[in-house]
Specification:
signal; disordered N terminus; 9 strands; single chain; 274 residues; Lipoprotein; 9-stranded antiparallel β-sheet; alpha+beta
């Protein structure tokens, strides 16, 4: 597979900032499928499509920016970075060639796993926004959190959420190889606050060596649909995942987006911090 050209890599730790860009590729170690899991996912997908109770206002660029969370909306000691810095964050651990040899349905499953890694690298988990969009980045020690608000009125964000729901089954565990170094990727489903019209959460873990050094990248990923608009959150790094902060961002961020779509001004400070 032809590798995409390197772009400026997202710095996930001080070690990565000073070191060689890390790369990955993907293929499955376990091709077994679970029919009951697929049925459950299909049922949840239908339910997600039918339950849309959100405001129908069109999201503008100013509205998307207003709907972005702030430092006060997430736990711990997150510090907001410049927008230009956040726009150039790209996890180079997510670049690479997909080996399809171990997949039960090689081409289809490998394509889904490759799409996951590509979308995490490109920060377009739900696809390219068809309308207004805005993003904001935060850092805490060696961890990073990227928060996005976007409109998908000419596409269907629910299709992407349905795809996300299938990944723990299709890409539960697979190996990735780059420059002769192998790593193991695991994808598991995570729970999110019951907010928005539909939501999906994942934890993606990459373990292996890079430049002869052991490394583990953990990313907690979330997406919440509000009508034809959505928020996405990706947080983590070499120090582990950030599930608590992602849950907080999802809960308060969804309310901010709903307020904007309803013509309201979001509160400057969160009304509830657990």
């Amino acid at each position: 597979m032809t590798r995409r050209p390197y772009r400026l890599a997202r710095v996930l730790s001080s070690a990565l900032a000073a070191g060689t860009l890390l790369t990955t590729t993907a293929c499955s170690d376990d091709g077994d499928t679970d029919g009951s899991r697929v049925s459950d996912v299909a049922a949840s997908q239908v339910a997600g499509k039918r339950q849309t109770l959100s405001p129908t206002a069109t999201l503008t660029t100013d509205g998307a920016r207003t709907a972005l969370i702030t430092e006060a909306d997430i736990e711990d000691d997150w510090t907001q970075v410049k927008d230009t810095e956040a726009e150039n964050w790209h996890d180079s651990l997510l670049i690479g060639r997909v080996d399809v040899s171990d997949f039960l349905t090689a081409k289809a499953q490998a394509a889904d796993c490759r799409r996951l890694l590509d979308s995490l690298f490109d920060d377009d988990l739900l696809g390219r926004p068809s309308g207004a969009s805005a993003l904001r980045g935060f850092e805490q020690g060696d961890s990073r959190l990227l928060y996005q608000v976007a409109s998908y009125e000419r596409t269907d964000p629910q299709d992407s959420l349905n795809w996300m729901a299938s990944l723990p089954e299709k890409c539960d565990q697979f190996t990735v190889t780059d420059d002769g170094e192998q790593r193991t990727v695991q994808v598991v489903e995570t729970s999110l606050p019951d907010v928005g019209d539909a939501r999906e959460g994942l934890r993606v873990t990459v373990r292996g060596t890079t430049g002869g050094t052991q490394a583990t990248l953990t990313l907690d990923v979330a997406a919440v649909r509000v009508g034809d608009d959505a928020i996405t959150v990706t947080a983590g790094g070499l120090d582990g995942g950030e599930s608590d902060s992602v849950g907080q961002a999802v809960r308060l961020g969804t309310q901010r987006l709903k307020d904007v779509l309803a013509g309201k001004t979001p509160a400057p400070n969160p009304s509830e911090v657990e």
